[in-house]
Amino acid sequence: MPNFIILVVEDEDAIREMLIVVLEQAGFTVQAVATAEEAQHFLNDALPDLILLDWMLPNVSGVEWARRLRKESIYQELPIILLTARGEEEDKIRGFSSGVDDYMTKPFSPRELVARLRAVLRRSSKHQWSPQVIAGDLVLDTEQHRLTIGEQNVVVSPTEFRLMQFFMTHPDKVFNRTQLLDQVWGRSVYIEERTVDVHIRRLRKILETYGREDLVQTVRGFGYRFSVTKHLS
Ligand code: CA
């Protein structure tokens, strides 16, 4: 089964813990936070496959945060399932349905939650990206979240995966840090340009294990380039 990453945003400890258990048992990788601010912080570093978002959160509500996300192009297609408590106005929720992919009313059965989640993931991964990107002997499977080099499975974090996805779909072009931030992380306010360098370093270290650190090249004074052919610069 593909290794999907679910970001859970829920301020009630008991429900959050329950969601972690249920989703992990269903085979998902789970990241859980209690506020929209923490969730935003998480997004600065990684892109999940789906967000399970509580409606009522302290400070910024789930609905408000989802609205903000939808304004950024990188998050427009990111699946969001909204969690609501019984008693919250159903009409309002339906009215908001354009911004989220589905919603569930608490309490819900774990089985139903997993089924709805899978349905949303299936729908989203179909038209989001083409499933495979190939560059030389590298194959990046966006549906299965898998990167292989010459049939060897390469273990990368979600951010490094996104970075590779961007590089592999834009080979032989040079990008500066700002461009990479915009394309891979989205226009987030908290992130610094040196974060790009940190992730490039990590990515190179991983590629080095396969003797392929030369795939991501530094272009002095400008930025980075991905290429399966060697360049002199
Ligand atoms: Ca809540």
Verbal overview:
This protein is α/β, with parallel strands linked by helices and 233 residues long. It has two domains: 119 residues, Response regulator (Rossmann fold); 100 residues, Arc Repressor Mutant, subunit A. 39% of the residues lie in helices and 22% in strands. The chain has eight helices and twelve strands. The strands form three sheets. The chain has a five-stranded parallel beta sheet with strand order 2-1-3-4-5, with helices on both faces. Strands 6-7-8-9 form a four-stranded antiparallel beta sheet, with helices on one face. A three-stranded antiparallel beta sheet has the order 10-12-11. Helix 6 crosses helix 7 and helix 6 crosses helix 8. The longest helix has 19 residues. The protein is elongated. The mean pLDDT is 85. Bound molecules: calcium ion.
